[in-house]
From TrEMBL:
Keywords: Hydrolase, Metal-binding, Zinc. It comes from the Bacteria. It comes from Thalassotalea loyana. This is Aspartoacylase. Residues 4-193 form the Succinylglutamate desuccinylase/Aspartoacylase catalytic domain. Belongs to the AspA/AstE family. Aspartoacylase subfamily.
Length: 295
């Protein structure tokens, strides 16, 4: 892999996720905090208009607009679709990007703690996960490598390497110090790792570590008319990354009934009851626990 030189740290991709936005303001005043040997680090405020309106987005979710064919589709012209094309021109273009590495900063209302989402499982990403975990034992590493970078719709997929820093629990449009501190620390560790990787000085990593791989998303229960008829079960609420097995209750219906998990694998729910996912009636994501080699 070629050396990483151009790095973009992106905040405010969702306008009501405040940690990244306020960290960007801090770093823009004190760029030395992001400065690293051999790296040129830029900061990008992705959706200022949504932030001004204190919303996740104006027309549609910006962090779902970066599939290569959508970026090339001139008929997609609403606010976020247009904004995606501007950001792609600035940091990309996807497939031949000026940026070598993107760190996209997000908050979740779910009780996920400091989570690092990796989009690929090559040596760089596997070792990055190991390094962050060594520096932040409370961190969780999630691989969302179920599709190729080309097919990923996340902003971080513009560059050949990109990661999502996803920290919770934090309500929308709120700043919590514990969450902000985790985000700042994780970002610093990621940048430190990039320098070590460039200089081929990554050492003392464990041979392997425990992480999670995204499998599927579950919807909140609906009736035939599409009306919501239940909620996340209280046993599952806030229990991100606590496993569930077939027969465990996961939803409580408003009429008092329960719906149990039917899957045939031990699932690790996360993004449980994420506020932003109500738009799509999503209840949670499910992952499998995996062992990842650092070699
Ligand atoms: Zn977000």
């Amino acid at each position: 892999m070629a050396k990483i030189e151009q790095v973009a740290v992106v905040g405010g991709t969702h306008g009501n996720e405040f940690s990244g936005i306020y960290l960007l303001k801090k770093w823009q005043k004190r760029p030395e905090l992001l400065a690293r040997n051999g790296l040129s680090v830029d900061t990008v405020f992705a959706n200022t208009k949504a932030h001004e309106e204190n919303k996740r987005y104006i027309d549609c979710d910006l962090n779902r607009q970066f599939i290569a064919r959508d970026l090339a589709d001139e008929t997609l012209t609403n606010y976020e679709q247009s904004r995606a094309k501007v950001i792609n021109a600035q940091l990309g273009p996807k497939g031949d990007a000026k940026s070598d590495f993107i760190i996209d900063l997000h908050n979740t209302t779910s009780n996920m703690g400091p989570t690092l989402i990796l989009l690929q499982s090559d040596l760089f990403n596997r070792q990055l996960g190991a390094y962050v975990l060594a520096k932040m034992p409370e961190a969780v590493i999630v691989f969302e490598d179920q599709v190729s970078l080309d097919e990923h719709y996340f902003l971080a997929s513009i560059a050949n390497q990109g990661v999502i820093v996803e920290i919770g629990p934090q309500p929308q449009s709120v700043i919590r110090q514990d969450v902000l501190d985790h985000m700042e620390n994780m970002t610093q560790h990621i940048l430190d790792f990039v320098v070590l990787f460039n200089e081929q000085k990554v050492e003392d990593l464990p041979e392997s570590y425990t992480a999670y791989r995204y499998i599927e998303s579950l919807k909140l229960p609906e009736d035939e008319a599409g009306e919501r008829i239940g909620m996340v079960h209280k046993n599952v609420q806030d229990q991100d990354f606590t496993p569930i097995v077939k027969g465990d209750p996961i939803f409580t219906l408003f009429d008092g009934g329960e719906i149990c998990y039917e899957g045939d694998y031990e699932a690790y729910p996360h993004f449980i009851n994420e506020a932003a996912y109500y738009d799509n009636n999503l209840a949670m994501s499910l992952a499998k626990k995996i062992t990842v080699s650092s070699q």
